[in-house]
Amino acid sequence: MTLEQLQQWAQTQIDNTARPQVRPDIAVSILQLIEALEELKEQQQADQVKDKG
Q1: Structure pTM?
Q2: Which of 3, 11, 22, 46 falls 20 to 30 Å from 52 in CA-CA distance?
Q3: Please, which domain of life does this record's source organism belong to (predicted)?
Q4: How far is Cα 36 from Cα 20, in angstroms, rounded to an integer?
């Protein structure tokens, strides 16, 4: 499962379009983790560019 697929799944849980036994708070946590990962990835890329310059 890719991060994009995981993000779509989590958003589906939040939108309550999925099965009711799935808790939306778990999906919110997943989206927060994905956001943190994306920020770290951007920071790493910026650091790599800075190191090359």
Answers
A1: 0.60
A2: 3
A3: Bacteria
A4: 27
Domain extent for 36: 3-52
Number of structural domains found in the chain: 1
The neighbour count for residue 30, using CB atoms within 10 Å, is 18
Tokens linked to 27: 């999906």
Per-residue burial over 7-19, b if 16 or more Cβ lie within 10 Å, else e, is bebbbebbeeeee
For 2-48, the pLDDT digits (tens) are 888 888 888 887 886 656 676 778 888 999 999 999 999 999 999 99
| Among the listed residues 40, 37, 44, 42, the one whose alpha carbon sits nearest the alpha carbon of residue 52 | 44
